[in-house]
């Protein structure tokens, strides 16, 4: 590689898409590529961001207004960029984040029906001109994802939403992927785990060979 700047890779998908096991596989592939890697997540990724995450996911926070939710997500993101993402990339460390701003368009924009122009305003405030180098979208039918997610214990504030909410989230992710094909790779996550993993591995290797 010709420059020292790290690469920023994000992983997205609806509930139950299998992000956790995908994250491990992606991390192994990147480390095999011989570069230092920081794994992180949103909302969260910093001590302050993790406290904001607790608020966002707490199912007792029934009165949280949609604007509050959007602003909290971006507050956590501002801290994450400042404290982890940008310094890591500048030091040549690659960053792999479990979700980033595409999730805000999908959940707060499509899911909650929020004003997309406002999300774009916040995006331009918090990280102007900065987008992931690669976004892997694990896609699967909503019913299947929710069925898988329901086996994980007490549902958080988002997991309590109806299937229709997640359908709009999924549709938004797919639209964003279609409109930015250079950045996105869509992985069919409805298949058996070994097939999903093989596709992920191949997709990553092909992408790594291009940079
Ligand atoms: P997860 O890490 O288990 O996927 O949970 C994070 C939840 O937060 C998930 O339901 C999606 C939601 N979320 C948003 O609503 N907006 C965002 O911008 C991000 C990053 C996550």
Q: Radius of gyration over alpha carbons?
A: 17 Å
Element order: H for helix, E for strand: EHEHHEHHEHHEH
Average pLDDT: 96
Residue fraction in strands? 5-15%
Question: Helical amount among residues, as a percent range?
Answer: 40-55%
Structural class: alpha/beta
Shape: globular
End-to-end gap: 7 Å
Give the biggest beta sheet: 5 strands, parallel
Please count the beta strands (DSSP E, at least 2 residues each). Answer: 5
And the CATH topology?
Answer: Rossmann fold
SSE layout and pairings?
Elements (H helix, E strand, L loop, with lengths): L7 E6 L5 H14 L4 E5 L5 H11 L8 H25 L3 E5 L2 H11 L4 H11 L7 E6 L2 H8 L13 H17 L4 E5 L4 H18 L1
Parallel strand pairs: 1-3, 1-4, 2-3, 4-5
Bound molecules: thymidine-5'-phosphate.
Descriptive keywords:
binds thymidine-5'-phosphate, alpha/beta, Rossmann fold, 211 residues
Structural account:
- This protein has a five-stranded parallel β-sheet, with helices on both faces.
- By secondary structure, the protein is an alpha/beta fold.
- Helices cover 55% and strands 13% of the residues.
- It has a single domain, classed as P-loop containing nucleotide triphosphate hydrolases (Rossmann fold, 3-Layer(aba) Sandwich), CATH 3.40.50.
- It starts with 7 loop residues before the first strand and ends with a helix.
- Helix 2 runs antiparallel to helix 3 and helix 3 runs parallel beside helix 5 (116-126).
- The protein has helices at 19-32, 47-57, 66-90, 101-111, 116-126, 142-149, 163-179, 193-210; strands spanning 8-13, 37-41, 94-98, 134-139, 184-188.
- Thymidine-5'-phosphate (TMP) binds next to helix 4.
